[in-house]
Amino acid sequence: MTSYVVRRLLYAVLTFIGITIAVFALVHAVPGDPITFYIGAHGAHNLSQPTLEAIRHEYHLDEPLVTQYLYWLRGVLRLDFGTSVVDHRYVTTRILEKLPNSVELNLIAFLVAAAIGVPIGLWSATRSGRPIERASAVLFFLLYSLPSFWVALLLMELFSVKLGLLPTFGMTSDEYLDLSAGQKLIDHARHLVLPVITLSYAQIAIFARFSKSALTEVIRQDYITTARAKGVAPRGVLWRHAFRNALIPLITLLGLTIPTLLSVGVITEQIFQWDGIGRLYFVSILTRDYPTVLGLTVVTAVVTLFASLLADILYAMADPRVRFEETAP
Amino acid sequence: MDGVKRFVVLLLLAVVACTNERPLPTVSTSEDLKKPQEGGTVVRRLQGDIATLNPVMAQSVNDRQVDYYLHTPMVHFDADLSAIPGLAEKWEISSDGRLYTSDGSNVTAGDVLFTLKKIIDPQTEAPQIAGAFDQLDLRTTRVVDPHTIVVGFKDGISPQLAHFNDLLVIPEHVYARGDFKIDFTSRVVGCGPYRLVRRVAGKEILLERRPEYWGPRPNLQRVLFKVIADDITAWNAMKRGEIDETIISTDTWLAEGRRPELQKFIDFRRFYTLNYNYIAWNNRDPVLGDKRLRRALAMCIDLKSIIENVYHGTARAMNGPFTPDQWAYNPDVPVIEYNPQEALRTLRSLGWLDTNKDGLLDKGGKPLKLEMLITAGSIASNPFAQLFQAELKKIGIELDVVPLDFATLIQRVLAGNYQCAYLSWNLDPDPDPFALFDSSQFPPRGQNFVFYSNPEADRLLEEGRREFDQTKRKKTYQQLHALLADDQPYTWTLQVSSKWAINKRIRDVKESKGWGLFQWFPGELGWWIPIDQRTHDVPLRRR
Amino acid sequence: MKRDSVSAMTWRRFQRSKLALGALAYVVVVALIALIAPMITVDPNAVDIASRLRPPDHTHRLGTDDLGRDVLARVIHGARVSLTVGLTATLISLLIGSFLGAIAGYYGGAADWLVSRLIEIVLCFPFLLLVLGIVALFRPSFITIMIALGLTSWTTEARFVRGEFLRIRDMEFAQAARASGARDARIIFRHLLPNAIAPVLVSASFGVASAILIESALSFLGMGVPPPTPTWGNILYSAEQHLEYAWWLAVFPGVAIFLTVAAFNIIGDRVRDALDPRSES
C-alpha cells in the first residue's frame, strides 16, 4: 500500500504541473491583463506610464510566458505564491483569510446533505417501488431542478425580509464581538442557515439517489444473499454488510464534490455575502489578478488530488475486494 | 511647451495632528431632537471590500469612501465643486501656474513632500493617483518651513489644483518604515475626522470619531462600513434596517419607492453626479470614421422615450462631454433629435442602399453591420444596447451586441480592435477632457481610444487647460462642447441620476453636484442620528 | 447480445412507469414547441418600452419584460436555446467522454494513465475561467457556452465508459471479434461501445438537466448567453432585478426550467432502472 500511495503522490505532482500549466496558459490567453484592468478602472484623466511600467516589471508581465511560468513555479517551490496585483498583499494571506469560511460552509452543507440524503436514500432502497418512495423521489428531482440563485433570493425574501427570522447577509452580527461564547455560536449558526440550505438542497437529492442506488446494488450482491442464507436476520444483514458497502460511493462523491465547490460557491457567497474563496476566485479572474488566480488553482488542485487519493484509499479499505489499483478519479 | 515657466502651488497647511491614539468616550446630553446631536453609529454599505487603507495605494471608489473619513485632503470641494481649504489653509498659484505653496503643523510640509514623492515613485505602483501628479517637478518642489511647501510642476495646467483633492497626506515617521505597499493595508495613521477601530477583511470597517480632530467636529461617533457586493442583498438589508444607506437601481427606486410602509423609514433620494453614458465610436473604422454616418446613427436613439419609459424622467439627455451641472457646459448645444427617417436619408446620400433587397443597407456589396461591445452583466448598457439594436434594425442596419467581461472589453478598446462600445465615465471635478479627446492621447498614452483627431479640438483642449481664469476657460470649453457635439467622436446618451435609499434616522444628509454623498465638504460630517434612534450602537470591544 | 432486444426490453420496462412516460411526453412536446417556435409566437426580440413590465393580460399572455418584450414568446424561444445548449453540450461531452473512456478502458496501461491524468486536470480546472476564456477568445454566443459546458463535463462519461470497457473487454464476444482479426477501432466502436453506452446515456440525461441549470447560473454571473437571445436562464436572471413587483418574469421561466430539468432527471432515472436486468419492478 505504501508504494501505491507513493506512486499516486508522484502522479499527483505531474497532474499538478499539468493543471498549473493549463491554467497559466489560459489565464494569459484571455485578453487583458492587470494593467488593462487598472486603466479601465481609472478615471477620465491621464495615466502615469512609469508606474504602469513598474507594475509590468514587478509581475514579470514584460517577459515571455515561459519565463513567467518558471518564475512562478520557482516561487511555489519555496511556498511563495507572490503578491496580489490588486492590493499587493501576499496571495497566501488573502487565501488563508477566506479559506476557513469556505471550508466551514461547504463542510456543513455537505454534512447536512449527507445526514438528510443518505438515510432517505437507504430508506427508499428498502422500499423501492412503493408509492411513498416514488413520491419522495419525485420531490427530490423537483428540488434538484431549482436554480440556486433563485432559491437563495426567495429564501432571503421569505425568512429575512418577510418573516424577519434570520439575518440577511454576512457571517456574524454587528455585536458579535461582545457576545458570550454560547451566544456567538448561536449568532453564527443563524447566519449559516440560509447559505447552508442554498448549498445543500440540491446535494440532498444527489445523496439520496447515490445511496439508494448503491444500497440497491449491494442488496443484490451474492454475499448478502449468502448472509441471508446463513440465517443472519435481514436487518442485521442490511446494517452489517450492506450499509458499510453503500458508503463507498459516497466517498467517491465527496472526492468529486470538492472541486465543484469553487464554481458553485460563488453565487451563494455573493448573495449572502459569505466571505469565501469562490467569490475571490471569480473577482480575481475578472480583475486578471494572475497570482491570486494561480494560488487558488493550486489550493483547489491540491485539495482535489488529495481527496481523490483519499477516496481511493478509503475505497480499498472499505471494500476488501478492491486491490490497490490505478483508478480513474 | 515653454520650459522656462514655473508652475507653482503654495500650500499653507492648517495645524493638524496625525493620530492613532484612543479617544475618550463622549456622551451626548442634548435632549432636543430637532438639532444635530453628537454620538450614534451609522452603518454604511461598501459595494466591495477595500483593497487597502493606504490612501496613496487606493484603488477603487470603495477605498476612497473610507479614506476621506481617515484623512483630510489638501484641498476640499464644496457641494458646488468649488475648491475650498482642506489641510491646506490657503494656497497661492504662481502666475505661470507651476508652483503651489502651503503651510502646516504636526502634519508638516515634510509629510506633504514625502507623500508626493511616494505617489510619483513608480516603485510605489500607485496607478490610480500617480497620473494626477505626473508633471510634479521635484527640483522646484521644496519645503520652505514646517508649515509651508512649494510644489513645482514641469507644466502649468489649471486642472492641477483639483488633483490636490486626491492628495491625502500621510505622516513620514510612520509610513517611511516597513513595506509601503503591504504593511498599511489594515492600519492607518491619518489626520482626518475619524480613526480606525478595526478592519475585518471582506466584512467590515469600523471607524470612530477623533476627539482631538482639528477641524469642525463631526456628529456621528462611529461609522461602520459593511461590505455587501450584491445589490439585491443590500436592498434587502436596507429594508430590514441592517444598513442605513445603499445605492439602488432605478427600477427598485421607482417600484419600491412608492410603497408607504417603506417610505415610513426610508428616504428615497435621487440626484445627478459627475457621470454619463456614451457610445464610443472607433473613429479609425472605415465606416464609422465619417461623422455624418455617426450623426445618422445618433438620430436612431430615441432618448426621450428611453428617459420617459425606462427611467421615468430620472435621467437626462447628454449632448457633449460636460454635464449640465458643470460650469463648462454649453446650454446652447442641441441634443440630436430622434429621427430615423432623416438618418435613412443621410445614409442613402452616403451611398448606403439596400441594393440586394435583403433588408440590410449595403454599399459596394458589403452590408451595414456593426458590432457594439458592452460590459457583460451591466444593468445600464444591456437594455440600451438592445433598444438601439432594435431601432437600427428598423432602418436596415444590423447591430451585433457583444457582451464581454470588463478587462477583455478594455483590452479591445485600448487596442482599437472594435467598432463601437457602450461605456460610461465617472468624471473628475475639473472638466478638462484633454486625456479623452486630444490627438496626443491615443492609447497607451492617454484615453483617447476613439482615436479622435481634430486640430481645432486640440487647440481648444490645450487652451482650456492652460487658462487659469475660469471665465475665459468657460468660453473655450463651451466652444469645445459645440465642436465635439458636432463631430460626434462619442455619441453621448444619458446621464442617469443616482438613486439612494437612506434610513430616515440619519438626519441632514445632503448631496453635492460632484459625487453625491461622498468626498465633499462638509458632506458626511454633518450627518446625525437622534438620540432615541441609535439602533446600531453596540458596546465597543476590540479584537 | 443483441441490441434490438435490449432496447425493446428497456422500452417495455420504461413504459411501466407512468411518471416517466409523462416526463418523456413533456420533453417531446417542449421540443416540438421549440421547433415550431417562430410559427406560433410573435418576435421574442421586438422591444416596446412603452409597455415594459406589464403583468399578463390578453395581448401578452405571460406579461412583458423590462424592454416590453413578450415573455411568452421569449419563454418559447428560450426553450429552443436552452434545450439546444443542454443537448449539444451533453452530446459534446458524450463524444469526448466515450472516446477517451473507451481508449483508456480498452488499451489500459499508458493510455489509461494519460486519460486519468487528463480527467484530474479537467476536474481541477476553474470552470468560470474556462467559460470566460472561451467567450473572450471567440465570440460570446450560445455556441461558446455549449462548448465550454461540453469541454468540462465529459469526465463523468469518460469514467463510466472506462469502467464498462474494463468489465467487457475480455468477454467472449470481444475476444471473438479480436480472433476474427478485426482492427482495434472496429472492435472498440462497433462491438464494445454499444454494449458500454447504456450507463452513459443515463448520465447524459442528467447532463442535459445540469447544463440548463448551469447556463442559468452563468446568466446570474453575467457570463451566460448574450442578449437579445432569450434563454430560460437569462430571462430568469433579468427577473432578479424585479423580483418584488414583476412575479411573472420569474415564475414562468422558473417553472419551465424546473419542469424540464425534472423531466430529464426522471427519464434518466427510469432508463437506468429499466436497463438494469436485475431490477424487479
Number of helices of chain A: 12
Helix content of chain A: over 70%
Count of strand segments of chain A: 0
Number of domains of chain C: 1
Largest interface: A-B, 59 and 69 residues
| Mean of pLDDT of chain C | 85
* Count of the separate structural domains of chain A: 2
State the name of the first-level CATH class of the largest domain in chain A.
Mainly Alpha
Q: Please state the CA-atom Rg of chain A, rounded to the nearest Å.
A: 24 Å
Query: H/E element string of chain A?
Result: HHHHHHHHHHHH
CATH architecture name of the largest domain in chain A:
Orthogonal Bundle
* CATH-level-4 superfamily name of the largest domain in chain A: MetI-like
Q: In terms of per-residue confidence, which ranges of chain A show pLDDT below 50 for 5 or more consecutive residues?
A: 323-329
Number of helices of chain C: 12
Please tell me how large the radius of gyration of chain C is: 22 Å
> Kindly, what is the distance between the CA atoms of the first and last residues of chain C, rounded to a whole number of angstroms?
23 Å
How much helix, percentage-wise, in residues of chain C? Answer: over 70%
Give a verbal description of the structure:
The complex is a heterotrimer of chains A (329), B (543) and C (281). Chain A has 329 residues and is an all-alpha fold. Chain A is built from 12 helices and no strands. Chain A has 2 domains: 1-86 and 287-329, no CATH class; 102-283, MetI-like (MetI-like fold). Chain A is globular and about 85 Å long. Chain A starts with a helix and ends in an 11-residue tail after the last helix. Chain B has 543 residues and is of the alpha+beta class. Chain B has a domain at 273-496: Dipeptide-binding Protein, domain 3 (Roll). The longest helix of chain B has 18 residues, at 470-487. By secondary structure, chain C is an all-alpha fold. Helix content of chain C is 74%, strand content 0%. Chain C contains 12 helices and no strands. The model of chain C has no long low-confidence stretch (mean pLDDT 85). The chains are: A mainly alpha (329), B alpha+beta (543), C mainly alpha (281). Chains in contact: A-B, A-C, B-C.
